[in-house]
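Notebook B, p. 112. Complex prediction, attempt 2.
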Amino acid sequence: MATSFNSWGGEVKALQYGNKDVAAVVAWGEVSVADPNTDIVSLCVEYAHGVRDNSCGHCIPCRVGTQVIADLLDKIVSGQGNGKYLDQIIDLADTIGQASFCDIGQTSPKAIAYMIKHFRADFEKAIATPPARKGGYAYKSFVTAPCMQACPIHLNIPQYIEDIKRGCFQQSLDVIKSKLPMPGVVGRVCVRPCESVCQRGRADGPLQIKHLKRFVADDALERQALAPDCCSSGATKVAAQEAKVAIIGAGPAGVTCANVLAKEGYKVTIFEMLPEPGGMAAVGIPDYRLPREILRGEVAETEKLGVEIRYNQAMGKDFTIQQLKSEGYKAIFIAIGCHTFKKMRVEGEDAGYYGFVPGVVFLRNINLGRLDQVPKGARIAVVGGGNVAIDCVRIAFRVGFTETNLVYRRSIKEMPADPVEIHDAQAEDVKFHFLVAPKRIIAENGKVVGLECAKMELGEPDASGRRRPVEIPGSEYVIPADVVVSAIGQEVDTACTGTVEGAKLDKWGVMMVDDNLMTTVPGLFAGGDYVSGPDTLIGACAHGRLVGKKIVKYLAGQAVEKLPEEDEFALVKQLQAVVPSQNGPLPAGVPRAAIAHEPANERKVDFREVDHGFTAPEAVREADRCLRCYRVVTYACQA
Amino acid sequence: MVNFVIDGKKMAVPEGTTALEAAREAGIAIPTLCYLKALRPNKACRLCIVEVQAPGLKKMVVPSCDLLVAEGMEIVTNNQNIKKMRADIAALLLAGLPDNKEVKALAASVGVFATPFAVTHHDACALCGICIQACQQKIGVSALSFAAKGGKSADVVVLEASRCVGCGACANVCPVGTIAVRDQNGKRQLLLYGQVANAIDMVACQACGAPFTTEKVISLLKDRLKKDALTMDAVYCPACAREKNPAPRFEQAAN
């Protein structure tokens, strides 16, 4: 009889798969059994099958060895077992574990050996009397990896990198596009949570995952230019559905959601406030980081699936949710983003001075080409430490400012902006004022002439864990500036949603959503920055994809509930098994590929793209660095 | 130069030397199936594994074909652990390909004459992939790739015939005799798993009249050599080319 057991060396954790208790789990080469009634032999067989099926087949010991182990276990449970098999498996598991390249081969056999060693009596019993498989439990397997786990949309990163390694660029792109319709966009501007957990980072730098994604997207564009039909995905035609869906906002969340629904045959209409698709990706991100034709091109691909985008349609002004309902839209997705700004609460902010402008407005006007609405001048001071602030100072050079200042109240260490962006801004000669906070906007004759600031020092950590800045008395000084931009945060425009009957609002006036991103009104969903507050582009895409899947269920009259993959990723999260420094440092060899840039002094006067992409040999070489940290996870639940 | 220790002996080699190259220079035999000097390390067969202790790192087992020797490393190529694993790997190879003479010979070289493992189905070949690597890295054609016919994992090598130029490099590198080239009735045939996977018309030598290559190979060569090419207006087979144009070619090239 099995007992509670945990080879992680800690307590047996109570784990949940959805709303079910997990009876036992095998993952990361470790085993944890919470429910002593779990049939360890069945668990082991399921795990061995999962491992065999997910061996990529490259390393011979793993490819043949995992098959041999699965075969031996199959024999045991079908009554053809033999007492020698158990030691044979343990012995072979050791060879596979030591001699294989990736984590599937290195860790999985270890878990099988653990199970046999610790529950040997169960296996011997199974050999003696072929077991009737214990009913009442379901045993299932799936694979994950640290990068997949960290990615908000859980892209199958090791798979698309492996396809690049093998030279199958289109296959690689197809893997990405099965979840994400904007690979070229995300491949340029993603904040890369995957790279921060990349296990190669322990040796000689994480993989350039973002740039590899950009490479396959760009490569497809190049091939398409040569032969227009080469990349037709051969998408299978699905039956057209009758129900109409309305999506409010053509940003990353809205477009991703539309993509999911259109592929399922639904007629989707997107209502967009701006004259341009892309939402914040269009008006928040400057063209030198994300060329507009890339964004437009990837949105157009979704339009080709039959999605209609109606521009210049602002919610609350041109239409209301009630109106959409009465027009027969059976499901509605609110993905309007965070386009309103937070106030700095400093003197002069509300005085209507010429030359004071919020960051989101500053970027939006430049990105929409409305330069007449951008205040003129030579010197600019931008307040804030996030990516929006960096975008504002960098774009300022490109619209004619010659002296740019960034004012941030903490030090460079606490800056939430992407370190790569900070570095690029430094290369372009942005003047950084760290540990400095704005006190007053100084104006003469209604026109901004400077920003009065005070120096700060760091005190005790605050709720965010970052040290709280404290003003140094008497340290005030003035930064001369013709334009002052505040970029300290964004907020949701809650007024435009109007009153929707039955919709519960949170304390900020944003509609509350459940775990499935559905509001308290059936069929009315909300996601993206509108729900999460200003967040990443890939996070918005993840919301859009999930909502798309949920709307399909809703319209089919099925229960709107979590997808198996959501429960799977949640289970691994509870395991907290993705420990970056588990195994100590790895030997270094090939360092992370460097990215070529346009020269700083040339690029900062126009909107050319700053980063160069990989060439095919560079991409293959970088992909070859992937350690392929896949793990097979097998769990048992009461059925 | 990099100083390190291999099987207890001090050695110095130029930077960029792999452990496998260093071992062979030192006269230490390490078995390999998928190693080819001309290709990037393929790391598939794992027969060339060694134990390595690099300063500041934990002891690891890695394939020596892919291990760049570094200052202060201690490499062990042949202890009991390594020998046992090599024997296991050879036995696994043999389980997948029990009747292959190349695999039998390789297994015998590490002391394995019969496999203790029974598998439900045999392998199509060793699936080491160096045919694919040679086609991709050296010929620049990428006509071969893995495919998964039986399940999720790659279990067979397939040929895209329209891309194949008929150079025969794949057959040349295959360590288990899975791919062969046969010139028959003026056609170059590529045999994959014993089946004719491609047949291309051959071009005859303009001197002796014997068919010896394909049009696609000639144009690939011309394209590769570009302006560095010496005049290639006449097409001669290697034997005739040597006869017609001996030493001077090299002198010309050297200038």
